[in-house]
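Ticket #4471: structure output looks truncated?

Reporter: J.K.
Steps to reproduce: submitted the chain below (319 residues) through the standard prediction queue, then opened the result file.
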Amino acid sequence: MKKWFKRLWLSTLLIVCGCGRPVDDIGPPPPPTAYGVPSAERVRFEEIPQPNGKKTTDPEIEGLNWNRFATTNFSIIAVDSSQGRYLQSNIEKMKEWTLSRWGFPNIPFSAECRILCVPNKDLMQKLFQLDRSYAEVRRDKSGRITLSCLWLVLDGPPAEVIPGALTMICLAEYEQATGAKFGFWAHRGIALLNGNLPRIRSNLAAISEPIQQDQRLHFSSAFRVTEDQHKKKPKEDQDLFDREAAMICLLLRKEFGQKNFLTFIPTQAGEQDLYKVFGFKSYGEFDATLKRYMLHLSFDIKEGRTPDAYLSIENPKGG
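Returned output as attached by the reporter:
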């Protein structure tokens, strides 16, 4: 794949403008008929969604001009037009891959997914007070999705940067379309395993030391961790939970098969569900199996013994 794009020079893009408007003033997403525009439109900072609870205070940054592109399910807003065009050409294929590799159908989104992309972390911090890529699903009072947003830092390979954040949106739309409800552990684990292989290896190998020292591990209690609880954790604990969730997903998917995995993740993940789907007689038996699995797999990854095929999630025929 060709190298990522040239570094952005802010001095060529800065203009004078007023303060950005609150998120509530952005207005509704464009109708589906507005999607598919082949050329870029110019967008001012006032139209850019802000992450909930965030507000830009740098008056210079508020003067940036942006380029807007569109596809069937996405509107893409980028400072660098070459990055926007790349996403316009590839984001729908990434969406399909994110879902189909786990056995989910490639459903259409019910609402616009708006992608805000910048070329480096410094600009992301100045614009949105975010230190990494971020996803947010916004809902009305009835719980239906009204708008999804992705804030992406495109400073690395696409397979490393995009799929993890995109997974959150895809799973939320799938849950709404089917009436299913997955545990938060499944969202986090699937997202991590949708990354590229170097990042998967790095994350799974990093769990070796906490396992040996019994540090802050959840085991079966991971099934009951909520998104709100996760947000309140320190970043180090969030990362550890995500790695453990990925280990759980990998264990259940690779050792018990796609069909059993897809049967289990919409359940309450109680002891009866574990027994009915996988044959575990209790949480204790599952915890002991998971601990052995994480210990052995993380060690094998560090030693270079685990083949790529095992860490890749495929959609086998007949799954």
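Triage note (M.O.): checked the attachment and the full token line is present. The CA atoms of residues 137 and 256 lie 31 Å apart.
Status: closed, working as intended.
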